[in-house]
Amino acid sequence: MNINEFLERYAAGERDFAWLDLRAVNLSEVNLSKTTLKYSDLGSTNLSLAALRESNLSQSSLSMATLWRADLMDSDLSASNLSEARLIRANLQRGNLCHAHLDRADLRLANLQDATLRGASLVGADLRYADLTGADLTQANLSRVDFTGATLVNAHLDASSLTGAIFNRVDLSQLRLSNAKGQHQAVESAPIPALDVSIS
Q: Residue 90 to residues 2, 85, 93, 136, 159: CA-CA distances in angstroms?
């Protein structure tokens, strides 16, 4: 199925599109809310400003996809591959990202309030200034994650791996860290590089 047929069928009311191959296509600003795209390949696809609320993208591949300001509130991204994806300012509030792969993903300024990331891998991810209020990162691999300036109020990092994680300018007083593994940095005075939120 090519992109034109996909969009035509969506416009006609179809919502179940599992196993699609939509690699490296332009779906920016498209409304795909409440769509099932599980097991689909969306690697390197442009989904900037796309509406994907309540969509099912479980076990799909979004590696290196661009999701700048995409709205993924209440979506299912469990066990999906988002490695090296660009999720700057994306809305992932209440999203299900259990066991998702987000290694080296760019999540600067992303909204992850009350998101579930249990068992997810975020090795080397950039979470500067992201909002993780109430997020569940239990048993997540957070090695080398940059949390500079992030909001982690009532976030759960229990039994997570924090080797090399950076917590500059983060209030850790309401962070749940029982049984977390590895050494992390929490240096308030460390310089913070200029924040680049462009998608180019």
A: 26, 11, 9, 18, 26
